[in-house]
Design a protein that fits this description.
The protein has 18 helices and nine strands. It has 452 residues and is α/β, with parallel strands linked by helices. It has two domains: 171 residues, Orthogonal Bundle (DNAb Helicase, Chain A); 257 residues, P-loop containing nucleotide triphosphate hydrolases (Rossmann fold, 3-Layer(aba) Sandwich), CATH 3.40.50. It has a nine-stranded mixed β-sheet, sandwiched between helices. The longest helix has 29 residues. The relative contact order is 0.10.
Length: 452
């Protein structure tokens, strides 16, 4: 086989760039944080270079002094030091690196070659799946999309990870929180008391919002979606399996411009209403709110669409029981519906982790609460599957006493019952329900329509 063909068949890499990165770190400790931030050990192609970088990485995590002598000593402790070659190789790297001034360029080359290797490996894996007939076309397409997405997110081939590398992410997150002026770590819901209770909507969390029909599940979800879309600076996605996108837009418009929803539905608008609608429409147009009203979506469909959304901040799904099974199968009569819902809820949690954003999922409750004297929902009322309760990080219920009791002393007041909360305590949050605008607001700052 010709030498050129052998070189062509090698995976992309640049030994010179890898050596220059390591040499820069060894002669100038000031550039180490810049390199650590951008490269992981697997970005280095040759084992020698990877062993040296892993030693530097571990020493940086422990805040130890880093130079050629200390790195060699660390490699002896790690068992990666080879008597005949390691010392001379490290000294050679230092000698051939004239300056660390161009370390950013060296890093860029190493990253690009590592990306090309991951793409090549993924392409080979996908080809093997097709040739081995490993599933249907849809299954292989979903797997291929997942692999490419993982590469783009920098998580390709992620397996067992040493705690020292995880701590880098933890420190980065703590520094981000410490530098932030926000009172809560997650996205705000727009309801102050609820934010305090659940610490906002946090990344990779599955938040379940459940209630009996007519309690305002969709209204509260749209409340949260609108607030996040206006104030977070991120894109927010609403998947509606029940309402059309026009109905959802009408709800959002009513919420934003304080016009009675009945007037919007009937079109019986006063002249001043049109001005308010124009202002509200302009405000909504400035947001990155995305709506999908396909009634036959699966979790795989949602995940594929969300992967393409830039700067994604929140996903809302209305509602869980209307979804088809996670694998895209039709709900055959011989399938157990509880198992299907369990599969869907588990897939929703995996989606939240994959996208690293909060996923707010709406759910129906069983009629069990209707038979009780106290009709406040319980976790046992979750319809069709206890797995929903297990998969969710936060479970919230909506209860309005005036819905059941016309003589209630708390008209247009709602309770948001936090029944499960992995970030803190459970409890009940009181909010104001404004039926004419189909929206919720803080009790202490009830929203009023602006003067005409």
């Amino acid at each position: 086989m010709a030498e050129e063909e052998i070189l062509y068949r090698q995976m992309p890499h640049s030994v010179e760039a890898e050596q220059s990165v390591l040499g820069s770190m060894l002669i100038d400790a000031q550039c180490i944080p810049e390199v650590i931030e951008q490269l992981i050990p697997d970005d280095f192609y040759t084992k020698q270079n990877r062993d040296i970088y892993e030693a530097i990485y571990a020493m940086f995590t422990l805040s130890l002094p880093i130079d050629a002598v200390t790195v060699l000593d660390r490699m002896r402790q790690d068992g990666t030091y080879e008597e005949n070659t390691t010392r001379s190789y490290v000294l050679q790297i230092v000698d051939v690196t004239p300056t660390s001034a161009n370390v950013a360029e060296y890093v860029s080359i190493v990253k690009d070659k590592a990306l090309l290797r991951r793409i090549a490996q993924t392409s080979a894996d996908i080809t093997a799946m097709v040739q081995n007939n490993d599933g249907s076309g849809e299954d292989i397409l979903d797997a291929a999309e997942q692999r490419i997405y993982d590469i783009r997110q920098g998580r390709a081939g992620r397996g067992l990870t040493h705690i020292s590398m995880v701590m880098q992410d933890v420190y980065a997150r703590l520094e981000e929180l410490a530098a932030s002026d926000a009172a809560i770590p997650g996205l705000s819901t727009g309801l102050t008391a609820l934010d305090r209770s659940i610490a906002g909507l946090n990344r990779s969390d599955l938040i379940l919002l459940a209630a009996r029909p007519g309690m305002g599940k969709t209204s509260l979800a749209l409340n949260i979606l609108l607030h996040a879309g206006k104030h977070s600076g991120k894109s927010v996605v609403f998947f509606s399996l029940e309402m059309s996108r026009e109905q959802l837009a009408m709800r959002l418009l009513s919420n934003e411009c304080f016009i009675d929803n009945k007037k919007l539905v009937t079109g019986k608008l006063d002249p001043e209403d049109w001005g308010n609608i124009a202002v509200a429409s302009s405000a909504l147009n400035q947001t990155s709110i995305l709506i999908d009203d396909n009634p036959s979506l699966t979790v795989a469909d949602m995940l594929a669409k969300c992967r393409r959304v830039k700067n994604l901040g929140l996903v809302c799904v209305d509602y869980l029981q209307l979804m088809t099974s996670a694998g895209g199968r039709n709900n055959a009569s011989n399938e157990n519906r509880q198992q299907i819902v369990s599969d869907i809820s588990r897939s929703m949690k995996i989606m939240a982790k994959e996208l690293n954003v909060p996923v707010l999922c709406l759910s129906q409750l069983s009629r069990a609460s209707e038979a009780r004297k106290d009709k406040r929902p319980l976790l046992s009322d979750l319809r069709e599957s206890g797995a929903i309760e297990q998969d969710a990080d936060i479970v919230m219920f909506i209860y309005r006493d005036s819905y059941y009791n016309q003589d209630s002393q708390v008209q247009n007041q709602a309770e948001i019952i936090v029944a499960k909360n992995r970030h803190g305590e459970t409890g009940t949050v009181l909010v104001q329900w404004l039926p004419q605008f189909t929206t919720f607001s803080n009790l202490e700052t009830q929203r009023e329509a602006p003067p005409p």
